[in-house]
């Protein structure tokens, strides 16, 4: 039975990954204003919400064959796609409601939206005129949101056969939905890096900024770091930060026979090595985990920590500045959420300072890692 299930999953994956997806990014230099006040953050937020909603509405006109062609997939889960669309519309309505609270200070992109019908109507007729102050942003933003929507729809189309952060399997899984408006949580995956590497730099930088984050560590990397230095060195590395686990190796935990021991072994090591920093949170590599794993996680006292703002900073994807621009655009669109970088990549050392500088006066906040996912 196990072999049959694995073969079925493999065949589905083979048919699913028929075409690559262009990773969405947007040059924030096309936006003509700095985010130098909460009101100006809201202006940019309203614009991104309406542009994404415009593309989302247009996508609903596609029938199944057209949607398969657009996503480059042979098989799609229409029920999962419909569920995602409903969630996206509700999130967009909530976010636009927050964003329009400053319309008296700046009326740009302010339209009468009191309910879902209003939002869909405004999304359908949304356009930026050729003589608009924002015309230089409109085209690049439209392209960004079309590509980003395709990323989301593609993950939904493959779910749950290929699990990802696009949806939750139960209440034991958290993705930051409960965060307040303008509140964001920083997270880092795949570390720790080698001694004096990116993890050291990022943790020190965050401390200097009086911000903290959750670093999701791999058991083998954490053990190697402790063996090459000392337990005290590792404790100093993560001073003031929070540490969760990603398993023993950075590999999918959805079809790995030893996935449970990968998690328990890592949790035991991390909790013993970093008792002041450890949080009982598991971040699944690639977002992949088993749909029937709720009982296991609950028995271990663990929650699954997902994310909703992906920097796409892995090797071979976006450059550092493109990653930073992508994150900021998604912060404007979603207005709250869990941001994921990789502390084994040099890109975060460029993207994070730029991001903090660009949003310093915009009225947003950074979630204390010790209060996250409670």
TrEMBL record:
InterPro entries: Glyco_hydro/deAcase_b/a-brl (IPR011330), NODB_dom (IPR002509), Polysacc_deacetylase_ArnD (IPR050248)
Keywords assigned by UniProt, alphabetized: Hydrolase, Metal-binding, Signal
Pfam annotation, one family: Polysacc_deac_1
Source species, domain of life: Bacteria
GO molecular function, a single term: metal ion binding
GO cellular component: membrane
Protein name: Polysaccharide deacetylase family protein
Native species: Pseudomonas karstica
């Amino acid at each position: 039975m196990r072999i049959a299930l694995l073969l079925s999953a493999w065949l589905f994956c083979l048919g699913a990954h028929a075409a690559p997806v262009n990773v969405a990014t947007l040059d924030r230099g096309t936006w003509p204003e700095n985010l130098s006040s909460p009101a100006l953050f809201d202006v940019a937020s309203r614009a991104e919400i309406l542009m994404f909603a415009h593309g989302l509405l247009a996508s609903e006109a596609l029938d199944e064959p057209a949607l398969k062609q657009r996503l480059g997939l042979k098989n799609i889960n229409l029920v999962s796609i419909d569920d995602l669309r409903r969630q996206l519309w509700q999130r967009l309505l909530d976010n636009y409601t927050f964003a329009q609270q400053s319309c008296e200070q700046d009326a740009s992109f302010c339209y009468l939206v009191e309910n879902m019908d209003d939002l869909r109507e405004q999304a359908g007729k949304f356009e930026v005129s050729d003589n608009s102050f924002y015309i230089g942003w409109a085209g690049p933003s439209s392209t960004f949101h079309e590509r980003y929507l395709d990323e989301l729809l593609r993950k939904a189309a493959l779910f749950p056969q290929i699990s990802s952060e696009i949806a939750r399997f139960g209440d034991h899984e958290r993705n930051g939905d409960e965060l307040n408006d303008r509140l964001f949580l920083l997270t880092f995956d795949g570390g720790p890096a080698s001694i004096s590497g990116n993890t050291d730099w990022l943790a020190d930088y965050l401390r200097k900024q009086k911000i903290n984050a959750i670093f999701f560590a791999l058991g083998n990397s954490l053990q190697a770091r402790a063996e090459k230095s000392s337990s005290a060195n590792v404790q100093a590395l993560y001073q003031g930060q929070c540490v969760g686990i990603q398993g023993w190796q950075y590999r999918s935990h959805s079809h790995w026979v030893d996935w449970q021991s990968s998690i328990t072994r890592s949790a035991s090591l991390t909790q013993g090595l970093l008792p002041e920093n450890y949080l009982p949170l598991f971040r699944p590599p690639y977002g992949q985990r088993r749909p029937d794993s709720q009982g296991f996680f609950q028995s271990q006292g663990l929650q699954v920590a997902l994310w909703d703002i992906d920097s796409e900073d892995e090797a071979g994807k976006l450059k550092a500045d493109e990653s930073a621009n992508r994150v900021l655009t998604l912060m404007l669109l979603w207005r709250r959420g869990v941001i994921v970088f990789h502390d084994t990549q040099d890109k975060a050392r460029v993207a994070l300072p730029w991001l903090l500088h660009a949003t310093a006066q915009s009225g947003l906040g950074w979630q204390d890692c010790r209060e996250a996912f409670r």
